[in-house]
Amino acid sequence: MSTERIVVDAAIADEFVAKFAARAKELPEGDPTKNAACVIGPMVAKESGPRLNALIDDALAKGAKLASGGRANGALMPATIVDHVKPGMKIYDEETFGPITTVVRVRGVDEAIEMANDTAYGLSAGVFGRDVTRALAVALQVECGSVHVNGATVQNEAQAPYGGMKDSGYGKFDGRAVIDEFTELKWITLEPSVQQYPV
After folding, report:
1. Domain identity same for 103 and 142
2. What's the domain range around 140?
3. What is the count of structural domains for the chain?
4. CA-to-CA distance for 56 and 51, rounded, in angstroms?
5. What is the pTM of this model?
6. pLDDT of 169 higher than 70
């Protein structure tokens, strides 16, 4: 799981992005084997960097703004936030698999739900709001296998069924589903001594 897209109402977006970017800039990146304080380690492969840089370049060329971070250097990349992301930008649709997220600005709850669902993926989402009843009503409309109200998108509990919708799902596992799927039943008997059978 990763939080690829953050949908924020335009009324609070400037303040949100400023605070989010300030926090992201505090996160040290590098090699965690050489720096124990490192929070953001290298990506899975050095080829990840050029792919993410191309996504950033495409978004910036189409009107997005870099709120924090920047381009990758091989497999290393700072915590990066791309703001003002819109449909038509490659980063809007593609999964990044790197220390990068996007901010999509909307006007009102209906547009927020539309943007949240405007994706081929649907693994996990979060809905934040002071009015929990309203947030729950929004969560019920988001097309995801898990929707967390006032909680991070990246969470999983072994006792709960886990899996997504759309291109993020092929059923559920964990909870009772994983026990049934991954358990082999085996019968073993134990006698205190060798049993004698009549011949």
Report:
1. no
2. 120-180
3. 2
4. 9
5. 0.80
6. no
